[in-house]
Predict the structure.
Amino acid sequence: MDMTTPIDAPRNCSGVSEIFSQVGEKWTMQVVVALRERPRRFNDIKRIVSGISQQMLTRTLRNLERDGMVERTVRATAPPQVDYALTELGQSLAESVRQLAEWARVHRAVIHDNRSRYDERR
Amino acid sequence: MDMTTPIDAPRNCSGVSEIFSQVGEKWTMQVVVALRERPRRFNDIKRIVSGISQQMLTRTLRNLERDGMVERTVRATAPPQVDYALTELGQSLAESVRQLAEWARVHRAVIHDNRSRYDERR
DNA sequence: CGGGATCCAGTAGGATACTG
DNA sequence: CAGTATCCTACTGGATCCCG
């Protein structure tokens, strides 16, 4: 193992950044947020997360389901009805992310301003 | 002209997920963590963030600099020496991210387990 | 030492059409 | 309604060479 790294950083950044990349995927957190209040059906989510295609919504939900963040419940009615709900794991993620989201919300304007100035100076 | 600023986002976090995607980029947070203790030089960071190419380190640092997370200081010595340091903005990001990182560290095993079971059931 | 310039592969993201 | 199936584009990540 690499014992030469002189930082007392959180151990195993590699595994953690794996989670980050999922969180950072374009639609993941918006879907999680859409489910925070209560379970919702496919097209309800699609309506809330404006701009998402049904393809991307399907993919995002599958990934979240795969990780155990979201539970999928199929009702054998006609027409078919599918509910998606956050699991406890998913809810705890949403809660942890909320703080980072708050940071982003507060600093968004400054970051955009920094970018503009950087791009102009170039 | 400001085409980049979303005017209205009722529940939507389009601007926030923009920050998330940067945080989720493969190397961004590992570089930030590498700078948390003190400023460091290019090849120091490269050594700490094992596996990163000089190309990707350059790109990542440029993006962080662009957003005002990192400050770049060039010393006109021979050989040239460049220091990278977190700004206050960068440090506050690191702090906010730490909590999400802690969440990821705690739940990583469970998530991996969920994935395995999901993939088997397929 | 600290990059920039190229080129290249893989994947995320998206548009559209079709289906049980 | 809730998806699959295709096909396509753009961007992320990386390897390599070069340069002051």
Remarks:
- Chain A has one domain: 10-121.
- The domain at 10-121 of chain A is CATH 1.10.10.10 (Arc Repressor Mutant, subunit A).
- The beta strands of chain A are 40-41, 70-75, 81-86.
